[in-house]
Fold this sequence. Notes:
Layout: E1 17-20, E2 26-31, H1 35-38, E3 49-54, E4 57-62, H2 63-67, E5 83-84, E6 89-92, H3 96-108, H4 119-129, H5 146-154, H6 157-171, H7 177-199, H8 206-210, H9 217-241, H10 245-250, H11 252-273, E7 281-283, E8 290-292, H12 299-304, H13 320-331, H14 333-358, H15 368-379, H16 392-431
Parallel strand pairs: 2-4, 3-6
Antiparallel strand pairs: 1-2, 3-4, 5-6, 7-8
Helix pairs in contact: 6-9, 7-9, 9-11, 13-16, 14-15, 14-16
Amino acid sequence: xxxxxxxxxxxxxxxxxxxxxxxxxxxxxxxxxxxxxxxxxxxxxxxxxxxxxxxxxxxxxxxxxxxxxxxxxxxxxxxxxxxxxxxxxxxxxxxxxxxxxxxxxxxxxxxxxxxxxxxxxxxxxxxxxxxxxxxxxxxxxxxxxxxxxxxxxxxxxxxxxxxxxxxxxxxxxxxxxxxxxxxxxxxxxxxxxxxxxxxxxxxxxxxxxxxxxxxxxxxxxxxxxxxxxxxxxxxxxxxxxxxxxxxxxxxxxxxxxxxxxxxxxxxxxxxxxxxxxxxxxxxxxxxxxxxxxxxxxxxxxxxxxxxxxxxxxxxxxxxxxxxxxxxxxxxxxxxxxxxxxxxxxxxxxxxxxxxxxxxxxxxxxxxxxxxxxxxxxxxxxxxxxxxxxxxxxxxxxxxxxxxxxxxxxxxxxxxxxxxxxxxxxxxxxxxx
Length: 432
Protein backbone atom coordinates (compact mmCIF):
# COMPACT_ATOMS: atom_id res chain seq x y z
CA UNK A 1 0.00 0.00 0.00
CA UNK A 2 1.39 3.34 -0.99
CA UNK A 3 1.15 6.28 1.36
CA UNK A 4 0.39 9.81 0.21
CA UNK A 5 3.09 12.44 0.73
CA UNK A 6 3.56 16.08 -0.22
CA UNK A 7 6.63 16.28 -2.48
CA UNK A 8 8.35 19.19 -4.18
CA UNK A 9 9.96 19.33 -7.62
CA UNK A 10 10.05 21.62 -10.59
CA UNK A 11 6.78 20.07 -11.84
CA UNK A 12 4.71 20.39 -8.71
CA UNK A 13 4.63 22.55 -5.63
CA UNK A 14 3.68 22.31 -1.98
CA UNK A 15 0.10 22.49 -0.69
CA UNK A 16 -1.08 26.03 -0.23
CA UNK A 17 1.10 27.50 -3.01
CA UNK A 18 -0.89 29.53 -5.51
CA UNK A 19 -0.26 29.45 -9.24
CA UNK A 20 -1.71 31.78 -11.85
CA UNK A 21 -5.02 30.64 -13.26
CA UNK A 22 -7.26 31.87 -16.05
CA UNK A 23 -7.99 35.58 -16.01
CA UNK A 24 -5.27 36.28 -13.47
CA UNK A 25 -6.95 34.25 -10.75
CA UNK A 26 -4.97 31.85 -8.58
CA UNK A 27 -5.48 28.17 -7.99
CA UNK A 28 -4.10 26.05 -5.16
CA UNK A 29 -1.83 23.23 -6.27
CA UNK A 30 -1.47 19.94 -4.42
CA UNK A 31 0.97 17.18 -5.26
CA UNK A 32 -0.54 13.74 -4.77
CA UNK A 33 2.26 11.36 -5.70
CA UNK A 34 2.79 8.25 -3.64
CA UNK A 35 5.78 6.88 -1.75
CA UNK A 36 5.98 3.74 -3.83
CA UNK A 37 6.26 5.80 -7.02
CA UNK A 38 8.71 8.43 -5.81
CA UNK A 39 10.96 5.97 -3.99
CA UNK A 40 11.11 3.37 -6.74
CA UNK A 41 14.00 5.05 -8.49
CA UNK A 42 11.89 5.97 -11.51
CA UNK A 43 12.25 9.61 -12.54
CA UNK A 44 8.81 11.15 -13.05
CA UNK A 45 8.61 13.38 -16.11
CA UNK A 46 6.02 16.00 -17.02
CA UNK A 47 4.35 13.55 -19.42
CA UNK A 48 3.79 11.11 -16.53
CA UNK A 49 1.90 13.65 -14.44
CA UNK A 50 -1.85 14.17 -14.51
CA UNK A 51 -3.12 17.62 -13.52
CA UNK A 52 -6.68 17.72 -12.15
CA UNK A 53 -8.47 20.96 -11.31
CA UNK A 54 -11.40 20.64 -8.90
CA UNK A 55 -13.23 23.97 -8.49
CA UNK A 56 -10.00 25.98 -8.64
CA UNK A 57 -7.84 23.61 -6.59
CA UNK A 58 -5.16 21.84 -8.63
CA UNK A 59 -4.18 18.25 -7.81
CA UNK A 60 -1.16 16.56 -9.39
CA UNK A 61 -0.78 12.80 -9.53
CA UNK A 62 0.45 10.26 -12.09
CA UNK A 63 -1.39 8.53 -14.90
CA UNK A 64 0.05 5.24 -13.68
CA UNK A 65 -1.72 5.68 -10.35
CA UNK A 66 -5.06 6.39 -12.05
CA UNK A 67 -4.83 3.70 -14.73
CA UNK A 68 -4.68 0.94 -12.11
CA UNK A 69 -8.46 1.26 -11.89
CA UNK A 70 -9.77 1.36 -15.49
CA UNK A 71 -13.37 0.78 -14.35
CA UNK A 72 -13.38 4.26 -12.78
CA UNK A 73 -13.86 7.61 -14.50
CA UNK A 74 -10.33 8.92 -13.93
CA UNK A 75 -8.79 5.57 -14.83
CA UNK A 76 -10.51 5.27 -18.19
CA UNK A 77 -10.45 7.19 -21.45
CA UNK A 78 -13.71 8.92 -20.44
CA UNK A 79 -11.65 11.42 -18.44
CA UNK A 80 -10.63 13.00 -21.74
CA UNK A 81 -14.10 14.53 -21.99
CA UNK A 82 -13.19 16.73 -19.03
CA UNK A 83 -9.84 17.95 -20.38
CA UNK A 84 -9.64 21.74 -20.68
CA UNK A 85 -7.00 22.87 -23.21
CA UNK A 86 -6.99 26.44 -21.89
CA UNK A 87 -6.05 25.24 -18.40
CA UNK A 88 -3.99 22.30 -19.67
CA UNK A 89 -5.61 20.03 -17.11
CA UNK A 90 -8.72 18.00 -16.39
CA UNK A 91 -11.43 20.18 -14.84
CA UNK A 92 -14.22 18.89 -12.58
CA UNK A 93 -16.87 21.04 -10.93
CA UNK A 94 -17.17 18.69 -7.95
CA UNK A 95 -16.81 18.81 -4.17
CA UNK A 96 -13.18 19.44 -3.15
CA UNK A 97 -13.45 17.92 0.33
CA UNK A 98 -14.55 14.60 -1.14
CA UNK A 99 -12.03 14.61 -3.98
CA UNK A 100 -9.06 14.14 -1.65
CA UNK A 101 -10.67 10.88 -0.52
CA UNK A 102 -11.31 9.99 -4.17
CA UNK A 103 -7.66 10.41 -5.09
CA UNK A 104 -6.64 8.55 -1.93
CA UNK A 105 -8.57 5.55 -3.23
CA UNK A 106 -6.35 5.43 -6.31
CA UNK A 107 -3.23 5.48 -4.13
CA UNK A 108 -4.27 2.88 -1.56
CA UNK A 109 -7.08 0.87 -3.11
CA UNK A 110 -9.16 1.44 0.01
CA UNK A 111 -12.06 3.74 0.77
CA UNK A 112 -11.47 6.52 3.30
CA UNK A 113 -14.62 8.68 3.53
CA UNK A 114 -13.99 12.34 4.38
CA UNK A 115 -14.50 12.98 8.08
CA UNK A 116 -16.72 16.05 7.79
CA UNK A 117 -18.61 15.46 4.55
CA UNK A 118 -22.23 14.45 4.22
CA UNK A 119 -22.53 10.70 3.64
CA UNK A 120 -25.05 11.24 0.83
CA UNK A 121 -22.65 13.69 -0.82
CA UNK A 122 -19.79 11.19 -0.48
CA UNK A 123 -21.89 8.46 -2.10
CA UNK A 124 -22.83 10.85 -4.90
CA UNK A 125 -19.18 11.69 -5.57
CA UNK A 126 -18.26 8.00 -5.60
CA UNK A 127 -21.06 7.35 -8.05
CA UNK A 128 -19.83 10.14 -10.35
CA UNK A 129 -16.22 8.93 -10.36
CA UNK A 130 -17.40 5.28 -10.37
CA UNK A 131 -15.37 4.40 -7.31
CA UNK A 132 -15.74 0.89 -5.92
CA UNK A 133 -13.87 -0.81 -3.09
CA UNK A 134 -13.83 -4.17 -4.87
CA UNK A 135 -10.07 -4.43 -5.26
CA UNK A 136 -10.28 -7.40 -7.62
CA UNK A 137 -10.76 -4.83 -10.42
CA UNK A 138 -7.40 -3.22 -9.66
CA UNK A 139 -4.81 -4.18 -12.29
CA UNK A 140 -1.50 -2.84 -13.49
CA UNK A 141 -1.12 -0.72 -16.59
CA UNK A 142 0.72 -3.58 -18.30
CA UNK A 143 -2.35 -5.84 -18.04
CA UNK A 144 -3.90 -6.49 -21.43
CA UNK A 145 -7.37 -6.69 -19.90
CA UNK A 146 -7.63 -2.93 -19.35
CA UNK A 147 -9.53 -2.33 -22.54
CA UNK A 148 -12.01 -5.18 -22.02
CA UNK A 149 -12.63 -4.14 -18.42
CA UNK A 150 -13.30 -0.55 -19.48
CA UNK A 151 -15.80 -1.67 -22.13
CA UNK A 152 -17.55 -3.93 -19.62
CA UNK A 153 -17.86 -1.18 -17.04
CA UNK A 154 -19.13 1.41 -19.50
CA UNK A 155 -21.93 -0.86 -20.71
CA UNK A 156 -24.27 0.15 -17.87
CA UNK A 157 -23.69 3.86 -18.29
CA UNK A 158 -27.25 4.55 -19.43
CA UNK A 159 -28.80 2.80 -16.42
CA UNK A 160 -26.30 4.47 -14.11
CA UNK A 161 -27.16 7.93 -15.41
CA UNK A 162 -30.88 7.27 -14.99
CA UNK A 163 -30.40 6.07 -11.41
CA UNK A 164 -28.29 9.12 -10.64
CA UNK A 165 -30.92 11.42 -12.15
CA UNK A 166 -33.65 9.90 -9.98
CA UNK A 167 -31.39 9.98 -6.92
CA UNK A 168 -30.63 13.67 -7.49
CA UNK A 169 -34.35 14.30 -8.02
CA UNK A 170 -35.18 12.78 -4.62
CA UNK A 171 -32.26 14.34 -2.78
CA UNK A 172 -31.92 17.84 -4.20
CA UNK A 173 -35.12 19.91 -4.42
CA UNK A 174 -33.29 22.47 -6.58
CA UNK A 175 -32.36 19.94 -9.26
CA UNK A 176 -35.55 20.73 -11.20
CA UNK A 177 -38.97 22.34 -10.84
CA UNK A 178 -40.62 18.93 -10.53
CA UNK A 179 -38.19 18.04 -7.73
CA UNK A 180 -39.17 21.24 -5.92
CA UNK A 181 -42.84 20.31 -6.21
CA UNK A 182 -42.12 16.75 -5.02
CA UNK A 183 -40.25 17.95 -1.93
CA UNK A 184 -42.96 20.52 -1.20
CA UNK A 185 -45.61 17.80 -1.32
CA UNK A 186 -43.45 15.68 0.97
CA UNK A 187 -43.33 18.48 3.55
CA UNK A 188 -47.10 19.02 3.35
CA UNK A 189 -47.74 15.30 3.81
CA UNK A 190 -45.38 15.17 6.78
CA UNK A 191 -47.35 17.98 8.42
CA UNK A 192 -50.62 16.20 7.60
CA UNK A 193 -49.40 12.94 9.09
CA UNK A 194 -48.23 14.62 12.29
CA UNK A 195 -51.52 16.53 12.56
CA UNK A 196 -53.47 13.26 12.29
CA UNK A 197 -51.26 11.72 14.97
CA UNK A 198 -52.03 14.57 17.36
CA UNK A 199 -55.76 14.82 16.62
CA UNK A 200 -56.22 11.07 17.03
CA UNK A 201 -55.50 11.39 20.76
CA UNK A 202 -58.12 14.11 21.33
CA UNK A 203 -61.20 12.61 23.08
CA UNK A 204 -63.57 14.67 20.92
CA UNK A 205 -61.91 13.65 17.63
CA UNK A 206 -60.75 10.13 18.36
CA UNK A 207 -63.96 8.51 17.11
CA UNK A 208 -63.33 9.94 13.62
CA UNK A 209 -60.09 7.92 13.49
CA UNK A 210 -61.16 4.69 15.23
CA UNK A 211 -64.91 4.21 14.74
CA UNK A 212 -65.54 2.63 11.35
CA UNK A 213 -69.19 3.67 11.44
CA UNK A 214 -68.30 7.35 11.81
CA UNK A 215 -69.07 9.61 8.83
CA UNK A 216 -65.49 10.94 8.65
CA UNK A 217 -63.66 7.65 9.21
CA UNK A 218 -63.37 6.63 5.55
CA UNK A 219 -62.28 10.11 4.47
CA UNK A 220 -59.57 10.35 7.11
CA UNK A 221 -58.41 6.78 6.51
CA UNK A 222 -58.22 7.41 2.77
CA UNK A 223 -56.13 10.56 3.20
CA UNK A 224 -53.83 8.77 5.64
CA UNK A 225 -53.44 5.83 3.23
CA UNK A 226 -52.60 8.20 0.38
CA UNK A 227 -49.97 9.97 2.49
CA UNK A 228 -48.38 6.67 3.52
CA UNK A 229 -48.42 5.53 -0.12
CA UNK A 230 -46.48 8.66 -1.08
CA UNK A 231 -43.93 8.00 1.67
CA UNK A 232 -43.63 4.39 0.49
CA UNK A 233 -43.04 5.34 -3.14
CA UNK A 234 -40.40 7.86 -2.08
CA UNK A 235 -38.67 5.23 0.07
CA UNK A 236 -38.75 2.55 -2.64
CA UNK A 237 -37.29 4.95 -5.22
CA UNK A 238 -34.52 5.91 -2.80
CA UNK A 239 -33.74 2.24 -2.24
CA UNK A 240 -33.64 1.42 -5.95
CA UNK A 241 -31.42 4.39 -6.84
CA UNK A 242 -29.13 4.36 -3.81
CA UNK A 243 -25.45 3.98 -4.83
CA UNK A 244 -24.91 0.75 -2.89
CA UNK A 245 -27.14 -1.68 -0.99
CA UNK A 246 -25.21 -1.61 2.27
CA UNK A 247 -24.81 2.17 2.35
CA UNK A 248 -28.59 2.49 2.14
CA UNK A 249 -28.96 0.68 5.47
CA UNK A 250 -26.17 2.74 7.02
CA UNK A 251 -28.12 5.97 6.48
CA UNK A 252 -30.11 6.75 9.62
CA UNK A 253 -32.76 8.71 7.71
CA UNK A 254 -33.65 5.66 5.64
CA UNK A 255 -34.14 3.61 8.80
CA UNK A 256 -36.35 6.34 10.26
CA UNK A 257 -38.43 6.41 7.06
CA UNK A 258 -39.02 2.66 7.31
CA UNK A 259 -40.01 2.84 10.96
CA UNK A 260 -42.36 5.77 10.31
CA UNK A 261 -44.50 3.85 7.79
CA UNK A 262 -44.23 0.45 9.50
CA UNK A 263 -47.19 1.00 11.91
CA UNK A 264 -49.62 1.60 9.04
CA UNK A 265 -48.78 -1.67 7.29
CA UNK A 266 -48.74 -3.65 10.53
CA UNK A 267 -52.19 -2.27 11.34
CA UNK A 268 -53.39 -3.03 7.80
CA UNK A 269 -52.23 -6.65 8.07
CA UNK A 270 -53.85 -6.94 11.49
CA UNK A 271 -57.16 -5.63 10.12
CA UNK A 272 -57.07 -8.02 7.16
CA UNK A 273 -56.19 -11.12 9.16
CA UNK A 274 -57.99 -10.48 12.45
CA UNK A 275 -61.63 -10.60 13.54
CA UNK A 276 -63.64 -7.39 13.63
CA UNK A 277 -63.41 -5.76 17.05
CA UNK A 278 -66.47 -6.31 19.25
CA UNK A 279 -68.60 -3.50 20.57
CA UNK A 280 -67.65 -4.25 24.17
CA UNK A 281 -64.69 -2.31 25.45
CA UNK A 282 -62.55 -2.26 28.56
CA UNK A 283 -60.43 0.45 30.11
CA UNK A 284 -56.68 0.59 29.62
CA UNK A 285 -55.13 0.54 33.12
CA UNK A 286 -52.31 2.87 32.02
CA UNK A 287 -54.10 5.51 29.97
CA UNK A 288 -57.73 5.06 31.03
CA UNK A 289 -58.77 5.03 27.37
CA UNK A 290 -61.37 2.53 26.09
CA UNK A 291 -59.78 -0.50 24.44
CA UNK A 292 -61.52 -3.16 22.38
CA UNK A 293 -61.07 -6.69 23.64
CA UNK A 294 -59.89 -7.78 20.20
CA UNK A 295 -57.13 -5.17 20.30
CA UNK A 296 -55.41 -7.14 23.04
CA UNK A 297 -54.38 -9.67 20.42
CA UNK A 298 -52.33 -7.05 18.63
CA UNK A 299 -49.73 -6.07 21.19
CA UNK A 300 -47.18 -5.61 18.43
CA UNK A 301 -49.50 -3.19 16.67
CA UNK A 302 -49.90 -1.06 19.77
CA UNK A 303 -46.13 -0.96 20.22
CA UNK A 304 -45.57 -0.06 16.57
CA UNK A 305 -47.91 2.91 16.88
CA UNK A 306 -45.23 4.59 18.96
CA UNK A 307 -43.03 4.73 15.87
CA UNK A 308 -45.46 7.09 14.14
CA UNK A 309 -43.92 9.99 16.02
CA UNK A 310 -40.69 9.28 14.08
CA UNK A 311 -42.33 10.92 11.05
CA UNK A 312 -41.47 14.30 12.52
CA UNK A 313 -37.78 13.51 11.94
CA UNK A 314 -38.45 13.43 8.19
CA UNK A 315 -38.21 17.21 8.39
CA UNK A 316 -34.48 16.85 9.05
CA UNK A 317 -33.93 15.53 5.53
CA UNK A 318 -35.22 18.83 4.11
CA UNK A 319 -32.98 21.11 6.17
CA UNK A 320 -29.21 21.29 5.82
CA UNK A 321 -28.98 23.20 9.10
CA UNK A 322 -30.71 20.39 10.98
CA UNK A 323 -28.45 17.85 9.28
CA UNK A 324 -25.48 19.93 10.42
CA UNK A 325 -26.69 19.73 14.01
CA UNK A 326 -26.95 15.94 13.69
CA UNK A 327 -23.36 15.82 12.41
CA UNK A 328 -22.20 17.92 15.36
CA UNK A 329 -23.85 15.48 17.76
CA UNK A 330 -22.15 12.56 15.99
CA UNK A 331 -18.74 14.24 16.08
CA UNK A 332 -19.21 15.13 19.76
CA UNK A 333 -20.28 11.63 20.80
CA UNK A 334 -17.24 11.20 23.06
CA UNK A 335 -17.92 14.44 24.89
CA UNK A 336 -21.63 13.64 25.18
CA UNK A 337 -20.77 10.14 26.40
CA UNK A 338 -18.58 11.64 29.12
CA UNK A 339 -21.47 13.96 30.02
CA UNK A 340 -23.82 11.01 30.48
CA UNK A 341 -21.29 9.08 32.57
CA UNK A 342 -20.71 12.04 34.89
CA UNK A 343 -24.45 12.60 35.18
CA UNK A 344 -24.93 8.98 36.22
CA UNK A 345 -22.14 9.14 38.79
CA UNK A 346 -23.41 12.36 40.38
CA UNK A 347 -27.02 11.17 40.32
CA UNK A 348 -26.35 7.90 42.13
CA UNK A 349 -23.86 9.46 44.57
CA UNK A 350 -25.98 12.39 45.72
CA UNK A 351 -29.20 10.40 45.50
CA UNK A 352 -27.76 7.86 47.95
CA UNK A 353 -26.43 10.59 50.27
CA UNK A 354 -29.78 12.38 50.29
CA UNK A 355 -31.61 9.14 51.09
CA UNK A 356 -29.48 8.39 54.16
CA UNK A 357 -29.69 12.02 55.32
CA UNK A 358 -33.46 12.44 54.86
CA UNK A 359 -35.29 9.10 54.90
CA UNK A 360 -35.76 8.90 58.69
CA UNK A 361 -37.58 12.25 58.96
CA UNK A 362 -38.74 12.87 55.38
CA UNK A 363 -41.18 10.39 53.84
CA UNK A 364 -40.54 11.82 50.38
CA UNK A 365 -37.15 10.05 50.29
CA UNK A 366 -38.46 6.54 50.85
CA UNK A 367 -35.78 4.89 48.68
CA UNK A 368 -32.52 5.59 46.91
CA UNK A 369 -34.46 5.59 43.64
CA UNK A 370 -36.49 8.53 44.91
CA UNK A 371 -33.25 10.21 45.96
CA UNK A 372 -31.81 9.67 42.47
CA UNK A 373 -34.92 11.26 40.93
CA UNK A 374 -34.45 14.32 43.13
CA UNK A 375 -30.72 14.37 42.32
CA UNK A 376 -31.07 14.32 38.52
CA UNK A 377 -33.83 16.96 38.61
CA UNK A 378 -31.62 19.19 40.77
CA UNK A 379 -28.38 18.67 38.81
CA UNK A 380 -30.10 19.61 35.55
CA UNK A 381 -31.52 22.71 37.33
CA UNK A 382 -35.11 21.70 36.48
CA UNK A 383 -36.37 21.57 40.06
CA UNK A 384 -39.96 20.32 39.90
CA UNK A 385 -40.37 20.94 43.64
CA UNK A 386 -42.45 17.84 44.46
CA UNK A 387 -39.52 16.34 46.43
CA UNK A 388 -37.55 18.70 48.69
CA UNK A 389 -35.13 18.21 51.61
CA UNK A 390 -36.41 19.05 55.09
CA UNK A 391 -33.35 18.70 57.35
CA UNK A 392 -30.40 21.12 57.57
CA UNK A 393 -28.07 18.38 56.32
CA UNK A 394 -30.34 17.71 53.35
CA UNK A 395 -30.51 21.39 52.47
CA UNK A 396 -26.70 21.60 52.61
CA UNK A 397 -26.40 18.60 50.26
CA UNK A 398 -28.98 20.25 48.02
CA UNK A 399 -26.91 23.43 47.85
CA UNK A 400 -23.84 21.43 46.86
CA UNK A 401 -25.77 19.59 44.16
CA UNK A 402 -27.14 22.87 42.76
CA UNK A 403 -23.64 24.33 42.52
CA UNK A 404 -22.28 21.20 40.86
CA UNK A 405 -25.22 21.26 38.45
CA UNK A 406 -24.34 24.74 37.20
CA UNK A 407 -20.71 23.76 36.58
CA UNK A 408 -21.80 20.40 35.17
CA UNK A 409 -23.88 22.10 32.47
CA UNK A 410 -21.48 24.96 31.71
CA UNK A 411 -18.29 23.00 30.98
CA UNK A 412 -19.63 20.49 28.41
CA UNK A 413 -21.53 23.24 26.59
CA UNK A 414 -18.28 25.05 25.79
CA UNK A 415 -16.89 21.86 24.26
CA UNK A 416 -20.05 21.23 22.24
CA UNK A 417 -20.16 24.84 20.97
CA UNK A 418 -16.50 24.57 19.97
CA UNK A 419 -17.26 21.32 18.12
CA UNK A 420 -20.20 22.95 16.36
CA UNK A 421 -18.09 25.89 15.18
CA UNK A 422 -15.33 23.56 13.96
CA UNK A 423 -17.66 21.27 12.01
CA UNK A 424 -19.64 24.21 10.64
CA UNK A 425 -16.51 25.90 9.26
CA UNK A 426 -15.30 22.64 7.70
CA UNK A 427 -18.67 22.00 6.08
CA UNK A 428 -18.82 25.51 4.68
CA UNK A 429 -15.26 25.20 3.44
CA UNK A 430 -16.10 21.94 1.67
CA UNK A 431 -19.05 23.52 -0.12
CA UNK A 432 -17.16 26.56 -1.38
